[in-house]
Amino acid sequence: MKYHFNYMTKTLNKIEKLIAELCPNGVELKTLGRVVKIKNGRDWKNLSNGDIPVYGTGGVMGHVDTFAYDKPTVLIPRKGSITNIFYLDKPFWNVDTIYYTEIDTKQIVPKFFYYVIKNIDLEKLDTGSGRPSLTQAILDKIKIPVPPLAVQEEIIKILNCFTELEAELEAELEARKKQYKYYRDDLLSINNVEYKALREIGELIRGNGLQKKDFTETGVGCIHYGQIYTYYGTFADSTKTFVSSELAKKLKKAQKGDVLIAGVSENIEDICKPLGWLGGEICISGDMFAFRHKQNTKFITYLLQTTNFHKYKERYAQGAKVTRVKTTKILDYKIPVPLIEEQERIVSILDKFEALVNDISIGLPAELSARRQQYEYYRNKLLTFKEYVG
Predict the structure, then answer these.
(1) Which CATH code of 3.90.220.20, 3.40.390.10, 3.90.25.10, 3.20.20.140 fits the domain covering 194-337?
(2) Digit-coded pLDDT (tens) for 201-224
(3) CA gyration radius for the chain?
(4) What is the 3-state secondary structure (H, E, C) of 141-158?
(5) Residues near 356 by Cβ (< 8 Å), separated by ≥ 6?
(6) Rounded to an integer, what is the distance from CA 301 to the centroid of its chain?
(7) Which of 20, 105, 284, 350 lies deepest, with the highest CB count within 10 Å?
């Protein structure tokens, strides 16, 4: 760790000298379309199995025997999780929910372009009324700094340092999460109790009408389906967004104790992601559900995170571009239903594990969060230049 920071200090000094020498009057800002060509992805269903990874907005979706592109590139989502940016330097295939880029390496180093894009708030460029969307026309107009290649290379070195540190912490945290997952699955594999289908213990309430354009600064709390897997963890008691009181009257509501479920996604991992709602009444969007029941909310939420449920939803997920699981299949899923007292006992144990892997105020998650904040600070600092005006 000490080596990393000594190295970064020296590199920062070198960058300052290079900027003073090579671009003392500032750095030219160019539209993205001048330095890269944005290319669409294509369907992969008719391709044969192989070793080439297939990328969507959620990451690798599978492997095929041919590639769409084999040069260093940055993948930028077109639909869905639009902040999921990928840097690739090996052959790949990409589907039509994510763009790849042909990068003019005479102007910009691919890895530098990756860091620049990561530093842009792409959510502000969202044009989607339901699912988040980025258009090529909007992306092409983004202005990005293009300093001399030598400056780019030095910036890459120092930002790589931060990503290496982050990767080390993430690997350790991932190992802890796997351990937690094992104990969670084991603890929730309950014998000698009755198993009931979700329909036997509650009901699914489908949301309606809410779009991102309806968000207001204040008002009635609301959750859009995409936020379940982009903004929230396992539980929440307050919303990040609001709608007007007039619109709220027309929208379906979730109540304290409901389990919110994402009804649509780009991938298996996020479809049917649960969010235990512990706050007051809020509005919910279409393409999501509120599961209303009389059990322990955290207990139900943990059950819908298990490997068993993941295998179940994988079996019944449908759709090529977007993934859904029929309401009837969600309600058919059977879970153990012990006495409330036993549910509370199990929850108290799992809450401790949950904190160890997800609570950013303690332990390893806190350290990782601090590193990310530090990295974002330096990334923004290193990628902010005085603009050259010719």
Answers:
(1) 3.90.220.20
(2) 999 999 999 988 899 999 999 999
(3) 23
(4) CCEEECCCHHHHHHHHHH
(5) 176, 180, 362, 363, 364, 365
(6) 19
(7) 284
